[in-house]
Amino acid sequence: MQRCTKPAAMLLPAPGVDLEKWAVVACDQYTSQSDYWHKVQELVGDAPSTLRLTLPEIWLEEPDAPERIKTIGQTMEEYQENGLLRPTAPGMMLVRRQMEGVSAPRWGLVMAVDLEAYDYREGSRSLIRPTERTVPERIPARLAVREAATLELPHILLLIDDPQQSVIESVAAVCNELEQVYDTPLMLGGGQLTGWFIPEGALTEKIQQALEALAAPEHLSKRYGAPADAPALQFATGDGNHSMAAARARWEQIRETLTPQQRLEHPARWALAEVVNLQDESLEIEPIHRLVAGIDPKTVLQDAVSYFSAQGVQAQLLKQAPESEDPWAIRWVAGENTGWLCIRPGGRWALPVAALQAFLDDRMPHWQGAKPDYIHGEETLRALCTGAQSIGFVLPEFRKEDLFRGVVLDGVLPRKTFSMGRAQDKRYYMEARRIMP
């Protein structure tokens, strides 16, 4: 199996830098809340900060975005030249994130991953795959930021499914034997972030071997019922997939200018990411419900039965909940009315959300005036279904193991399948890495 991880030389803020002002939440958060980013600007003031090394996506489409991107590139060079960023030896970073209101901390490992092992296209058989469909139209704006950058600052979270806790937790158990390189509160409800450096050596090799064991086809077959010829899967992207897609697009540009030997060594071939165990106690995976507005609910339900019948899959409508627990029983809500759409498991879908989304994608163009939406929280969904021309589908609880099962068996999950934590729980920028020689 191709090895797609490695220790990396990183850049950390120099001693004396205020880390609470340095670390800023992932740029793809609070995209409709300009007040949040104005608060960040006020808190940071003139201090060194990753706010000046990244472009919050709320400003990505603004007229001055090109000028902002140019300034980011200049600031990256200034921070290195004036010593605000200090290099580490090659290694990995063990990180512990204590979120507000969450009892257990989230542990992760920051390392470099090979972009040659990542493919976001539908039907991908690569070692690193997205959990949800990538929207190609979202890549160019993010690519423009990376084209002007000499550094990368990761907010990518890559997931492993490790119920035996053989990778990250085994390292966390010996964190007192490692060098702690930062420990800081995070701004605006972000909690606390602590990092320990792991120099390249026996421990990083042990980590890589444990990751490879999780990706082996025989493991995928035993855990998910995957066929014997199923391709190995090492990581599934949890957060930051479009940023990773932009990194891959940038690497493809650079790769065309290099000799075969240079392609092996160029730093832009790799992306820094944090690896997190899907089974981490702090990690909450919640389903995202479906809403269809502007159409008679009876039409939607009748079309659902017809659609699945045409696919050779049995489906029926029930007024009462099924007597036995059935993960393929999807409750619908329309005003004061409710019921269940029961789909017999199987066919070409591994998960009920995949079956439901396939139906909606197929029929939506035929429902004149209908508008789909993706809703977080059942109470919010019910509130939006009070009118006579709206219907909501309450997706079953999303089991953690279903995430990898869906990627292994279906290839990729439907868009907006799950939500992974609150905005303030997303990754805050701390480490950087140089991506240009």
From TrEMBL:
Query: Pfam families, alphabetically?
Result: DUF1015 (PF06245)
Which InterPro entries does the record associate with it?
UCP033563
The name this protein carries in UniProt is: DUF1015 domain-containing protein
In terms of superkingdom, the source organism counts as: Bacteria
